[in-house]
Design goal:
The chain is mainly alpha-helical and 446 residues long. The chain contains 19 helices and no strands. It has helices at 7-47, 52-69, 79-87, 91-97, 100-115, 123-135, 149-165, 168-179, 189-206, 227-252, 257-265, 267-284, 294-301, 311-325, 332-349, 358-374, 377-388, 394-411, 416-445. The longest helix has 41 residues, at 7-47. It starts with 6 loop residues before the first helix and ends with a helix.
């Protein structure tokens, strides 16, 4: 009689589950480390705020140098690299973006950036970490077919999001909407198992928490009072998010004038200057622009404070500085803080907004800005809903995200992460071709 499940099948499934648990655990440890790094920076500047003038430039320069010199493939968010790896058919190119070495170094470099006050997040690095872990399964084909390389990369990306923010539904939506934007998503076991195990691991280690806390009871927008805030968030978010994405894409292709010359010829010096700009803005804003923006956004959502009117623009500026410096770190979570700042402005401008509804408008701003910047509206409203535990805001969030997405497509025609991924992939292909040509030349000379 044949066994119900063969030993080969058992080994295959255990390998998949073990790798998914490893990816989730690594992402969660990264989250704990990120919170500790932000706290270290807070303590560094709590007594002597001016010290940021020294540690930010030095830290930015160090992170940029380490990334370029010793850990290529770790620069920036990590989402464009993951997408580039999923688009390539060459294992050699995928290894330039996804490996255990890159995952570990990405963690430490991002933590270093947070310690010195860079406005970066851990969501993009978590995507690259999860994808790197799951991509290692391609080395174990002898245990049986688990999934294609593309499916494993998408599964790891979704698991990284799910584990890092305790948002399993958003992890699945990210895998579908962002990682499989231009190809058909197949709901395979690898993706579902990875995301489910990531969510369970996050629940076991961190508990049933919400990233941005819980908005107060009753924080929602009814009909018809919620129509104007929803429209305002969708329209303003669409133009601002689309415009910001376009700025980031243009900046990735090169800066104009003398600034661009310094960035190309002396990237470490340019990174230090970006760090100096981050420190100056942080001092001008009382320290509110450092880091992810998580603490400021959470306090505003829970009604403990109000975001100042300048917060949105200042936060956009420091995100751009970290992006232009090409230090490791994501822009996802800091962009949610920008959206909250936009929501605060909407709440100030629109007449007759009760104090009890202001947090709901902040939630709308977060969803709309993120949907416009990434052009992934479903992921945007799902992740904001899960992060704030406000399911009553589902319909207004959906409406604001869809409006913002539509407007963003007219402002920025190519989605941000894909626009960043394609040049990354081309550079990797040229690098691989150069290495192959050099190897062929050496062989002929011998």
């Amino acid at each position: 009689m044949l066994p119900l499940i063969s030993p080969r099948s058992w080994r295959k499934h255990l390998l998949l589950m073990g790798t998914a648990l490893g990816a989730a655990t690594l992402s969660i440890l990264f989250a704990i480390g990120a919170d500790a790094s932000i706290e270290i920076h807070r303590k560094l500047i709590s007594d002597y705020a001016w010290i940021a003038i020294f540690i930010a430039p030095a830290g930015f320069a160090a992170m940029a140098w380490l990334s370029m010199r010793f850990f290529p493939g770790t620069e920036g968010s990590g989402i464009p690299q993951t997408i580039a790896a999923s688009l390539s058919d060459a294992p050699e190119i995928r290894r330039q973006f996804l490996s255990l070495r890159i995952a570990i170094s990405k963690i430490f470099l991002t933590l270093g950036g947070l310690i010195v006050g860079a406005s970066i997040g851990r969501e993009g690095p978590s995507v690259q970490i999860g994808a790197s872990m799951m991509h290692t399964l391609t080395k174990f084909r002898r245990f049986g077919y688990i999934g294609t390389s593309r499916d494993l990369i998408a599964a790891g990306a979704g698991a990284g999001i799910a584990a890092a923010f305790n948002t399993p539904l958003a992890g699945i939506m990210f895998a579908i909407e962002e990682m499989c934007r231009y190809r058909t998503f197949r709901a395979n076991g690898a993706t579902l198992v990875s995301v489910i195990l990531a969510g369970l691991t996050s629940l076991a280690i961190l508990g049933n928490y919400n990233y941005f806390g819980r908005t107060a009871a009753g924080q929602t927008l009814g009909w018809p009072d919620g129509l104007w805030p929803t429209l305002a968030a969708g329209i303003l978010g669409g133009f601002l998010g689309g415009g910001f994405a376009r700025l980031l894409i243009a900046s990735s292709r090169g800066l104009p004038g003398n600034v661009g010359k310094i960035a190309r010829q002396r990237p470490i010096v340019f990174a230090a200057l970006c760090g100096l700009g981050t420190a100056i803005l942080g001092l001008m804003c009382g320290g509110s622009t450092y880091g992810t923006g998580y603490a400021e956004t959470r306090a505003a959502l829970e009604g403990n404070t109000q975001l100042p009117f300048y917060f949105m623009l200042a936060k956009m500026a420091v995100i751009w500085l970290a992006f232009a410096a090409r230090i490791p770190g994501g822009i996802f979570a800091p962009s949610l803080a920008v959206g909250a700042g936009m929501g605060a402005i909407i709440a100030m401008i629109l007449p007759g907004i009760p104090d009890g509804d202001q947090a709901a408008i902040l939630v709308l701003g977060m969803g709309a800005f993120l949907a416009a910047m990434t052009q992934s509206p479903i992921t945007a409203f799902v992740i904001v809903m899960e992060m704030t535990a406000n399911h009553q805001m589902l319909l207004p969030l959906m409406a604001a995200a869809v409006i913002a997405h539509g407007i963003s497509k007219s402002v920025c025609r190519v989605p941000l992460y894909y626009a960043l991924a394609m040049p990354t992939l081309y550079r990797a292909e040229r690098k691989q071709q150069t290495q192959e040509n050099a190897s062929g030349t050496d062989t002929q000379s011998i």
